[in-house]
Amino acid sequence: MKRWAVLLCLLAIAPFGSAAEILFTSGPQEIAGQRYYWLAEWKLEVTLPEDVAADDRLEVLFGTKGPLKRTMGFEYDGRSGSFSDVRQQVFEWIELPLGELVGGKKVTLFGQGDGPVAFLAGIRVTGRSAGELQVTPVRTRVVSSGGSQAATWAELPGFDMNDENRPLWEPAPKEPDWDRAQRSAQYAGIALSKVQRWLHECCLPIRDARSGLFRPTGAEWNYRDTAADCYPFYVWAAWFTDLQVLDTVMVDALQAERRLCNHLDRIPVSYDIDAGRKIEMDFDAMVFGASEYAKDGLVPIVEITGRDRPWFQRMREIVDDVFQHARYDTPYGKIPSTNVEVNGDLLQILPRLYAMTGEAKYLDWAHTLADYYLLPGKFVPARLSDHGCEIIGGLGLLFAVDVKACPEKARQYQPHLEFMFDEILRRGTNSDGIIIGELQAAPGPHDNLVTRDGWGYDFVGYLDYDLALGTDRYADAIRRPLTNLLKPRYLHFNWDHGSRDNVADSVEGGLYLLRQFPTPEAFVWADREIATLLVDHSDPNRLWGVHKLEANTVRTVLIHTMLHTRNTLARPWQQGLELGAAPCGDGIAVLLRCDAAYEGRLQFDVPRHRLTFGFDQDWPRMNAVPEWFTVEPDESHRYEVRDADAATVQVVSGKSLHDGLPVRLEAGKSLRLVVRPVVE
């Protein structure tokens, strides 16, 4: 099939409402029962009715599959322009800005822009015209997948909940499910190869050679966006796909921001890269940026790289100095801010630092903040999404740590937490149990209000509470939204506004819950949203941008990828490699394949919650990568590695698996391994 084929054909039309309205009943693609033309592959030549009036309007039945704006171009009467929009409904009629219409003139509609391209299900003229509207589609391009590695995720099976797909999400089947492992290998292979390309083709080129800082949005390196939401996921991309970049470029960038941006002791301020100077900021702005950087930037890096690399010390020194300079007096002690988001960020960090270091000051600071909010009584944050949800999960994580570290505080906080959780459920959910954006005065359910992307982050606090006490007080409340996510209303749902970041945040929050509540409907939903909105975008070669909304998307893609590899990594990563794993009893079934020959190591994850953070349990928490399968990295723990094709078995230590199991692949051949702990 020629990639750029031009095919003229007459459109089969179905009149609807009037002669000047056409629905594309014979369009080549379909969604929600409606046929359509995708303007990435087609242009539409429209001839206006002869009796069209100047004040009539041309409208298109505009399609929206997801939360991003879709773009189309148009030519009319010697003029050209473009149009972008996104809507809540799958299809909506939208007026094109053509100006005065003239009978018999032609309008050409075509794909335009590097982002998502519009698709149309119909065209009509509104107003006084009763004449015949003519539309001719012209095939301009055939979008080809171009090979096995380039196949789009959306083309793979498993995006519907049925009897065939439900077994894919059996938590622990006794026998290896190689179909599931192969499916996961395709998913993860596409994602990791794209992330590696994104790192090298998009991220590294925007590093400023003189300062060593990254500049994703211009000359300003700032801490509320660049350092908090861009840089950490450049680091993640390096960790998962190129350790050499991690240990050189990414470490150098950290040392650069330390050297250039520290201002109030080690609290940083923004930096003008072009001018080569710091940007003056007031105290509150400094603390806001520092807390954002520590929680959204450094915490996720430390979650995967551990405390032996320099990001841990940077997180610690910033938090130390933020509290050293705390200036707001309260009945409970000084706090660094009265902003609920800032304090929520700090409550996410402080329990981690206490558990990692054993230093009481971190727990004391956390208690000062928790006292400030909880002890006056009846505290419930008004905002339940981003810029408010942080404190819900932060208080939950602190409570989980306090149950053993400071049980008297846990007992003191417990009724206040229950009040907060219960009020959110009572006044802040829709009929599917999903937490909405703002707390309401009246009880719900609230189905007519905006449902934002922080619902899963909120439920993390609930889950920590139950796990810490060994109860199931909120189990039904957590499970309910997970089972409802496959409802039609959430198909390519716009979580507040047109951004992939909103979808990414929603999926990320769901994945944190799925580790404890493995719900098939939610797994399918997460796969679907990742495949069709965050990775694929109908273009296997399209990468992400480098600004915060796109970098945050990469974060969620990598969290989701670790679900499909069960936290195993192939080092080094090689383009075209496929790696996936599926649970199998108390072990996993791993499948590795590559179109070209490959030699490297298969590295297994460890219980980071205990070894890095000192937690008693793998507490669900924001900015983390859930642990789907781990090994104990010592010589005493032994694991059986069975080659399913060669029928060979070897017993190796957990340390060997964490260091990396040597693997070698012939081109086009698969390696299938079953890894299980040896029970003595």
The share of residues in helices is 25-40%
Number of strands: 26
**Which blocks of ≥5 consecutive residues have pLDDT under 50?**
1-18, 142-151
Number of helices: 16
CATH topology of one domain: Glycosyltransferase
Distance between the termini: 59 Å
What is the 3D shape? globular
Oligomer: single chain
CATH level 1 name of one domain: Mainly Alpha
| Biggest beta sheet summary | 7 strands, antiparallel
Judging by the overall fold, what is the CATH architecture of one domain?
Alpha/alpha barrel
Q: Strand percentage, roughly?
A: 15-25%
**pLDDT average, as an integer?**
90
Q: Roughly how many Å is the radius of gyration?
A: 27 Å
Global structural class:
alpha+beta
Detailed description of the structure:
This protein has 680 residues and is α+β, with helices and mostly antiparallel strands. Among the domains are: 7-139, Sandwich (Jelly Rolls); 221-320, no CATH class; 326-471, Glycosyltransferase (Alpha/alpha barrel), CATH 1.50.10.20. Helix content is 37%, strand content 19%. The protein has 16 helices and 26 strands. Strands 2, 3, 4, 5, 7, 10 and 12 form a seven-stranded antiparallel sheet that branches. Strand 20 (577-584) and strand 21 (587-594) form a beta hairpin. Helix 8 (390-405) runs antiparallel to helix 9 and helix 10 (455-469) packs parallel to helix 12. The protein is globular, with a radius of gyration of 27 Å.
